[in-house]
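INFO batch 0412 | record 1 of 1 | parsing
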Amino acid sequence: MTIWEMLAVFVAGTCAGTINAIVGSGTLITFPVLLATGLPPVTATVSNALGLIPGAVSGAIGYRAELTGQRRRVIRLGAASVCGGLGGAILLVSLPSTAFETIVPILVSLALVLVIIQPRLAKTVRRHRERRGVATKTDGGPLLIGGVLAASVYGGYFTAAQGIIYMSLMGMLIDEEMQRLNAVKNVLAAIVNTIAAIFFLFVAHFDWTAVVLIAVGSAIGGQLGAKVGRRLSPTVMRGTIVVVGTAAIVQLVTR
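INFO prediction complete | emitting C-alpha cells
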C-alpha cells in the first residue's frame, strides 16, 4: 500500500468502528476501500473481519453500563452467535461470492421495516400477551435464538448491516430499552467477528497491513461511537438505523 492508501484504510476503520458501535454496517465503508487498494474480495473480507474485532470489543466496553443485568441474555444469544459465525465463515470459503448477493439486500430491507414498525408492533404483542395472561419473555424465546443464529451466519459471511438485523430481531421479541439492546448487539457482533476471524486464520490469506490499520482505527472509533450512541434517544437511534440501513441497501444493490 502507498502512504495515502494506508491513511484511507485507517480513516475507514475509524469510521467503521464508530458506526458499528452506534448502528452497524461499518463494513460498507471499509470493504470498498480495501478493494480500491487492490485486495481480492475474499482477502479484503477476512482482513476486514479480523481488523474490526478491536472496534467491536471497544464498542462493547463503551456500552458496559447498559450490559448490567444482561449476563444470561448475552450468554444465550452469544452461544447462537458462535455457531452462526462459524457457519458463515465456512460458507465464505466454500461458496461463490454470488450466493448471498441476492438475499442480502432483501434481509437488510426486511430488518429496516421491522425497525420502523417495531414500537407499534411491540405494543400490539404486549397487549395480546396481557389479554392471554402470558408474561413477556425477557430472552425472546426460541424464535430470537433462531433469528440470531441465522443473522450470525450472515455476519460470519459478510457482516455488513449485521447489527441492524440484530437490533430489529431483539426489538421485536424483547421488551427492553434500545440502548440496552444496542449494548447486546455490540457484544454479539464482537463474538461473530472473533469466531470468523479465528477460523480464517487457518484457511485464508490476510493482508496484515490492512488488518493493523483497521484494528487501530476501529478501536478508536468504537469508543467514539459508544459515547455518541449512548446519548441518542430511541427515536433518533431508530432514525439513524433506517438512514444507515437504506444507504447500505443502495450500496449493496449498485456495487
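INFO post-check: The chain is about 80% helix and 0% strand.
INFO record closed
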